[in-house]
Amino acid sequence: MKQAARSRLSNLLYLSLAFFLVIGEVMPTQASEAGDLASPGKQGDVHHPIQPAGKADPSLLPLWAVLEGKAKGKITGFWRPGPGSPHTVYGVLSETARPSESSARRFLSEHAQLFKLDPTLNDLSVTRQTESLIGTQFVFEQRHHGISVYDGQIKVLFDGQGRIRAVNNSYVPLTGIVDPTPLVSSGQAVEAGRIHLERNQTQGLLDEEVPAPIANLVVYAEDGTPTLAWEVIHHTWGPTWQVFIDGKTGHVLKPAQDLNRYATPIRGLGQVFVTNAIVATGDPSLRDNKDAASAVPSSAYKTVVLERLLGTGYLEGAYASSSASKKRVYSPTHQFLFDRSSNGFSETMGYYFLDFAQQRIQALGFTDAKSINARQQAFSIDRSPKDNSFYSPSSRDITFGTGGVDDAEDAEMIWHEYGHSIQDYLVDGFGTTAESGAMGEGFGDYWSGTLGEQYNTISLNGVPEKVCLAEWDSTTYRTGTPTCLRRLDGTKHYPEDMVGEVHDDGEMWSSVLWLIRAALGADRADRVILQHHILLPKDATFNMAGHALIETACSLKYPVSAMASILRARGFETNGTPFPDACQVP
Questions:
Q1: Domain boundaries, position 400
Q2: 246 near 231, Cβ under 8 Å?
Q3: DSSP-H helix ranges across 390-485
């Protein structure tokens, strides 16, 4: 910690924490910065073991049979490691009813023992109701004596006919009563987290401009023992650190984890690349040359209309804002015509291509109440000097790095990070395990590719996008002609090609999504692939996501046989539930 910052802390706070920190902090492994869009040699590679499949608690099998008996046709279930209760269930699970909280509660009450819920359901509160193309979803959060149970959630989806079609269950069965009165204050918990991060040589913690730390009182039961705890979030302009502090003792319960996922309107004018400098010119020999304007010919630039500006003179609109940047460009006439030697160019790229992504989403039919991620996406282009970018689910901001080629000069980097934002909007905290993390990266790559083809077909006289991603950004850390961050035409097969690195394993998922796109067509595939996320828990497996894709396609009345064949051919039935070749019609 810098001395100037430390001097601001009161001696009383340090004295009060001394007792807690000396008597038994759980010493973690060394914390590391986890970035995004990582590649060999780039900051932020994260490795995870292959995710084990859950097994059913045998005592629940008769209750599962009751659910099967009430369902209309075959149902598919996945089981939770630990409790052994259903984690995710797909199928026609109920009769037709008006989608409502009360009808969702009635279903949960009937099957409370199966899902290991408190039979009264008094600890469940609806925190979100989402309307989508495939129905209405109610999200119930679990609370204990009024305190949020960390990760305690159950989601119920009704289809357009009012039948329950999916349940996601991460409810935490609590044994005993957790005293809801903390002995450690929120300020003490924040400082305990700060000291823990310092001890592990965490960088970038004390940036004076970052938002203040956050401390939320929760019931934490990840290790199986319910404990009153403070969830402490320390923001930086790099990682966003999450630390759990015991609310009674001040001990660190879990080593620090980086939460980031490492992309009346007024019209203005801006200057951008068509995707990136290499795609725009067709010249793979271009190189960054330290942001020099002369490194890229004028033919790479295109003047575009900036839609949905709010009239502030900044790059601020309905769906995108550069407000997280340190020094923003300003134009009272809304003319943002910069070349790449100016940070204003990266700001303009960020605004234009984030807005384009939301336009594409709405063009697919996700409008008004059915919109996906139609919140304003804040981003920065001058906060991180690293050759990496990331999305923070805590602040919900995207940070584009400036190392090598400025990442915001490549639309495919912008779109990849926006993919993480979409997932976080649809599934809180998505990507916590090896397979879900790989699907997060794979979807981000797919999203870049499908948007690139849409945009380039319009802008380059029908020339389709290649399966090579981020040709421009990757010139500083890849070799080849052209260089590619990653590709969408891989042949990796599950599970033997799993290596435990989410970006490498993500190619296994992005290539499957790209094949599904070829089978269904761009519009249908994009609808299914965007929408299937709402059927997933944050720790979904490949097999579970495959079933969610098929369930979504069935709800939209799209054919599924080709999709099932693609998923099967890449091994995603291995040790999992078989994929159906046709939709069930109850």
A1: 266-405
A2: no
A3: 411-426, 434-459
The answer to whether residues 91 and 157 belong to one domain is yes
C-alpha–C-alpha distance, residues 391 and 419, integer Å: 9
Helix segments in 111-259, DSSP class H: 112-115, 186-199
Q: What is the pLDDT of residues 40-91, one digit of tens each?
A: 233 333 444 565 667 889 999 999 999 999 999 999 999 998 889 999 999 9
For 508-556, give the secondary structure using H, E and C.
HHHHHHHHHHHHHCHHHHHHHHHHHHHHCCCCCCHHHHHHHHHHHHHHC
Rounded CA-CA distance 38/441 in Å is 10
Euclidean distance between CA atoms 474 and 389, whole angstroms = 13
Average pLDDT rounded to a whole number, residues 174-192: 89
Output the six-digit token pair for 556.
């939209």
Same domain, 167 and 31: yes
Lowest mean pLDDT among 10-24, 38-52, 503-517: 10-24
CB-based contacts of 65, cutoff 8 Å, min separation 6: none
Pairing of strands 377-384, 398-401: parallel
Angle between helices 343-363 and 411-426 (to 10 degrees): 50
Q: Which residues contact 264 (CB under 8 A, 6 or more apart)?
A: none
> How many Å apart are CA 161 and CA 507, to the nearest integer?
36
Other residues' Cβ atoms within 10 Å of the Cβ of residue 551: 26
Q: What is the dihedral of CA 190, 196, 198, 204, to 10 degrees?
A: -60
Task: Tell me if 86 sits within 8 A of 167, measured CB to CB.
Answer: yes
Provide the token pair at 125.
């509160």
Contact, 101 vs 139, CB < 8 A?
Answer: no
Name the phi and psi angles at 509, rounded to 5.
Answer: -85, -40
Domain presence at residue 428: no
Amino acid at 85: S
The number of domains in the chain is: 3
78 and 199 within one domain? yes
Q: Are residues 219 and 273 in the same domain?
A: no
- Using alpha carbons, select from 30, 33, 14, 17 the residue that is nearest to residue 246: 17
Residues 234, 277 within the same domain: no
For residue 421, being part of any structural domain is answered with no
Strand order in the sheet with 301-309: 301-309, 266-273, 335-336
CB 412 within 8 A of CB 466: no
Same domain, 321 and 358: yes
Helix axes 522-531, 434-459, angle to 10 degrees: 150
The C-alpha atoms of residue 170 and residue 154 are separated, in whole angstroms, by: 6
* CA gap 333, 45 in Å, rounded: 43
CA torsion angle 291 296 301 307 (round to 10) = -20
Same domain, 320 and 456: no
Phi, psi of 114 (to 5 degrees): -60, -45
Q: 13-17, 164-168, 385-389, 450-454: lowest mean pLDDT where?
A: 13-17
* pTM listed for this prediction: 0.76
Q: Please, which residues bridge with residue 121 across strands?
A: none
234 found inside a domain: yes
- In the block, tokens 């059915």 appear at 370
Q: Are residues 152 and 291 in the same domain?
A: no
17: part of which helix (H) or strand (E)?
Answer: helix 11-22
For CA atoms 552, 557, 558, 560, give the dihedral sign: positive
**Residues 127-134: what's their mean pLDDT?**
92
